[in-house]
Design a protein that fits this description.
Layout (H helix, E strand, L loop, with lengths): L8 H107 L12 H60 L23 H107 L11 H63 L8
């Protein structure tokens, strides 16, 4: 066994001094570590609080931004809903106008044109009434075309507004979801229980949009809604003007046609009355001619008695004997009487023939007048009874 070497007093002092220095150094290091730890803890705690506060602030800002955009979207959605309802009302007004024109104005106008084809003979004329009816038909057809286009435009604009509202609703749903998530995040406190660390890898996390594109999507949606609202308002203004213009055009056309009808009816009535006056005069002349014919025939019959008497006298005087059979004054008188009676009979017969011819002409004229009066009565029935009774349903109305 090797004996333990003993240290000297100097070595002992040096050793103790060294260990004390090392202890002091370690203590100083420990103090610095503690001091640095306290500083670091305070700094990290302050930074953590700042970061957490900033995160909360940013979340609140984000929620505020989302709420602002949601309010904007809700506002435009409300305007879109109001415009859709207004457009539906305007579409209904256009549909009502279309129904009235299709079911009332157009059939009545066409029926009037068809009924007036029932006029006969010389009354089948292209008069002012027919011209006005054709103009009225043209205006109705043009109005129908304009109204149908406006109805189609209203349907299309309603579809476009609904599409814009769909995008608004979609964005609102996304905003509401994002707001709910951020509000939930804001409610998460570091001191609450049941917290657990999640695995997050920022390098691998994918984002669908940037902040700029996120804002642009919503602004584009708002802009699209605003454009559709503006178009809808412009369309409603146009429909207002169109309906007013169509109503005024139809009113002026139907009124012009009615004026032409009344003028034509008055003209035909005047012609008919004049024809009736002429017809009454013709009837009077027929009666006069018939009476005159009867008187002439009676006169002719009367003259036949005188001729018979005259000829019998002459026949008896032929029986005079001898020299008594002479051309005396009575004989000359009888011969002159017979000649005058023969001439008178011929004149009466000629007058009877002329009277009969005149009576035949008058009767033929009377028939023509009666036929023409019937033509005018038919025209009056067509225009005044059939057409004007139909046109009473064409009352002015605004749509």
């Amino acid at each position: 066994m090797i004996p333990f070497r003993k240290f000297s007093h100097c070595q002992w002092k040096v050793n103790n001094h060294g260990k004390r220095i090392i202890s002091e150094q370690q203590q100083e290091l420990a103090e610095r570590i503690i001091s640095e730890s306290d500083r670091l803890v305070d700094e990290i705690r302050e930074k953590t609080q700042q970061n957490h506060g900033e995160s909360n602030h940013r979340l609140e800002e984000r929620i505020t931004d989302i709420k602002f955009l949601k309010d904007e979207l809700e506002s435009y959605k409300a305007e879109c809903c109001a415009e859709e309802e207004a457009l539906k009302t305007y579409r209904m007004r256009v549909g009502k106008a279309l129904a009235v024109f299709r079911e009332k104005y157009l059939p009545i106008c066409r029926k009037c044109l068809a009924i007036r084809e029932q006029r006969v003979e010389t009354d089948i004329v292209r008069d002012e009434v027919e011209k006005e009816l054709q103009k009225e038909l043209r205006v109705i057809e043009e109005s129908l075309e304009s109204l149908e286009k406006a109805h189609t435009d209203a349907n299309e604009q309603i579809r476009r507004i609904r599409a814009a509202m769909y995008q608004v609703d979609k964005d609102l749903l996304l905003k509401a979801t994002a707001q709910g998530i951020d509000e939930k995040c804001l409610e998460i406190k570091p001191t609450q229980l049941n917290l657990r660390v999640q695995q997050i890898n920022p390098e691998k996390d994918a984002f669908n949009t940037t902040m700029e594109s996120w804002q642009k999507i919503t602004l584009d949606t708002i802009q699209k809604s605003s454009q559709e609202i503006t178009k809808a308002r412009s369309l409603r203004s146009f429909i207002d003007v169109l309906l007013r213009q169509v109503a005024e055009d139809i009113f002026s056309r139907t009124e012009a046609t009615n004026v032409a009808f009344r003028k034509r009816i008055g003209e035909v009535k005047g012609t008919k009355e004049r024809l009736e006056d002429v017809h009454r005069e013709t009837l009077r002349q027929v009666n006069e001619i018939e009476r005159n014919l009867g008187r002439l025939e009676h006169e002719l019959v009367t003259k036949e008695g005188f001729i018979a008497a005259c000829t019998m006298r002459l026949s008896e005087r032929k029986k005079r004997p001898g020299t008594e059979l002479c051309l005396d004054i009575p004989q000359e008188t009888l011969l002159r009487e017979l000649a005058n009676l023969t001439l008178s009979c011929k004149q009466l017969e000629q007058m009877i023939t002329d009277s009969k011819t005149t009576l035949r002409y008058l009767l033929n004229t009377q028939m023509q007048q009666e036929r023409e009066i019937n033509v005018k009565m038919n025209s009056l029935k067509v225009d005044e009874v059939d057409c004007m009774s139909l046109r009473q349903g064409l009352e002015f109305q605004s749509f």
